[in-house]
Amino acid sequence: MLRCLASLFLIAAATAFPAAAQSVRIKDLVEVDGVRSNDLVGYGLVVGLNGTGDGLRNSPFTEEIMTNILERLGVNVTGEQFRPRNVAAVLVTGRLPPFARTGGQVDVTVSAIGDAKSLLGGTLIMTPLNAADGQIYAVAQGTVIAGGAEAEGEAARVVQGVPTSGVIPSGARVEREVPFDFANLSSLRLALREPDFTTAARIEDVINRSLGRRAAVMMDAGTIQVNLQNTGASSPARAVVAIENLAVEPQRRARVVVDQRSGTIVMGADVRISRVAVSQGNLTLRIEEAPLAIQPNPFADGETVVVPRTGAAIEEEPGIGLAEVPSGTSLSEVIAGLNALGVSPRDMIDILKSIKAAGALHADFVVM
Q1: For the chain, what is the largest distance between any 2 Cα atoms, rounded to a whole number of angstroms?
Q2: Where are the transmembrane segments (predicted)?
Q3: Cα 206 to Cα 24, 27, 191, 199, 213, distances in angstroms
Q4: Which of 34, 197, 253, 361 could form a disulfide linkage to 356, CB 3.0–4.6 angstroms apart?
Q5: pTM, 2 dp
Q6: DSSP code string of 291-309
Q7: Closest of 357, 282, 365, 280 to residue 331, by C-alpha
Q8: Comparing C-alpha atoms, which of 97, 139, 144 is closest to residue 122?
Q9: CA–CA distance from 144 to each of 67, 109, 273 (Å)?
Q10: Sheet containing 361-362: which strands, arranged edge to edge?
């Protein structure tokens, strides 16, 4: 077996990144159970568009909501026919943050659901926003800031970005609070964003060392329970303040993430490869059709005959010869070696897939 690739891997080891983890705050690793946001959604109407709204024949729901709004405002439109092009039906979405109080403001996103061409310059009319329980928690209204632009002439139209979607900063006002008695909790549950037994055990140890008591108990790989009575804090909020800024060195599963569209490869420092041999080359198959027409002699009886003629060839481009990767080599060394040989990112992804299929790549392989 050729050893050229393996030698390149050993040279690249000097520049490989270290496997040591860095300390991370507990607040960046966990979520406090019960402290969460809630999604909101509503159905409303954007007005004031410059002829870029819904076509009411194609979007009858726009006419229906416009009629309902005008009737609530005391305008009788029974039997009237509406054909304006300056209104658009939209879905309004937002997120109610934890501990949001009545009168607070949140951002909302406005998206057209009909055949409107643009929401530029439009104004969202008062729209109630509901949560999953069907209750109204906020009301949205304001000028839509669309994220695109368009220009149109007699025979051409150009669009940049997505003008049918926009945002309203602080466009919704909170009208109802989510009931949550955080101040009277007797214990807290910390939920890891990425469950891991080692990380959970380290968080438990750090909390107990910092508070000097047996306050934290690891329940499983994703949960640490904190007994507030053993923390010595005056309130649950004070206990969270004392815990969330403690530093921990997290442990994560080795993972390789590849994006086939852009050829991007992202890997963790703990990825390892067992002893494996690699050989890679590209085959190009070419088939060309060049039919030949045969005609009869002048003034002779006969018909023109087309004779098929096909040319087929297989070309093999230079690739990586049979090379051996030593056991325990890190993936960063493999990537450095492949880069030194001029392997393209897409070929590199194919090689990594094959190494994973052979059982020599010890990591989660995620393809996007």
Answers
A1: 113
A2: none
A3: 12, 13, 16, 11, 11
A4: 361
A5: 0.67
A6: -EEE-PPTT-----EEEP-
A7: 365
A8: 144
A9: 22, 9, 52
A10: 329-330, 272-273, 361-362
CB count within 10 Å of CB 81 equals: 7
- What burial class does residue 38 get, using C-beta atoms within 10 Å of its C-beta: 0-12 exposed, 13-18 middle, 19+ buried? middle
Nearest to 335 by CA among 327, 345, 326: 345
Cα separation of 65 and 168, whole Å?
A: 21
Residue 174 and residue 137 in contact, taking contact as beta carbons nearer than 8 Å: yes
Nearest CA to 49 among 132, 146, 141?
A: 146
Give residue limits of the domains in the chain: 4-19+255-367, 24-34+180-248, 38-174
Query: Count of residues for the chain?
Result: 368
Question: Which one, of 126, 153, 125, 120, lies nearest residue 139 by Cα?
Answer: 126
Q: d(Cα 111, Cα 231) in Å, to the nearest integer?
A: 47
CA 91 to chain centre: 21
The amino acid sitting at 308 is P
From the list 4, 1, 6, the residue with the least C-alpha distance to 273 is 6
pLDDT tens per residue across all 368 residues of the chain: 334 433 333 333 333 444 445 788 999 999 998 888 999 999 989 988 888 888 766 677 777 777 777 777 777 767 666 667 788 889 999 999 999 999 999 999 999 988 888 888 899 999 999 999 999 999 999 999 987 666 666 666 677 778 888 999 999 999 999 888 888 888 889 999 989 999 999 999 999 988 877 889 999 999 999 998 888 888 889 989 989 999 999 888 888 888 877 777 777 777 777 777 766 665 454 556 577 777 777 766 767 777 776 665 645 555 555 455 565 566 667 677 667 666 777 777 777 788 788 887 788 888 87
Q: Residue 89: CB partners within 8 Å, gap ≥ 6?
A: 43, 44, 45, 46, 54, 59, 61, 62, 65, 112, 113, 114, 116
Neighbours of 129 (CB within 10 A): 25
